[in-house]
Write a structure and sequence with these properties.
By secondary structure, the chain is mainly α. The protein has 7 helices and no strands.
Length: 134
Amino acid sequence: MGYLLYSLSLTTFVLVTLLYLTRQTWIQYLPRNPLPYPLNFRYDPLGPETPSESFTDDVRLGFSSNSFSLAGNIESGDSRSGLDDTAKQEIKQIMKKRGVGFDEARRQVVQERFRKQGIGPDGRPKDPKFVSFS
């Protein structure tokens, strides 16, 4: 009986270790949310497709952070209608799809716009005719 328990424990340990070491290979085939709806529900601070009318709404929906604070706009009574709606939608999609925070999603959106406009990640144009005098 002791040998059976020992061999079962050792086999389980080896199997779990192999699965852990090869997880990058097989984890992509697992469903993202394997649990049914009531069990996998998470609070979504970004909410449904709610239009925002002001910077206050943008902060409430999660489009603010320590490094990108909208508090100055709110305190000064800025009358603009908040952040750009298309950029907010892009950021929201990245946050949901990739599971990253606001700052990382905003960085990815800016880098993608730079790439489309021919600007390198360091902020300099990729144009071969570009001349800079420092």
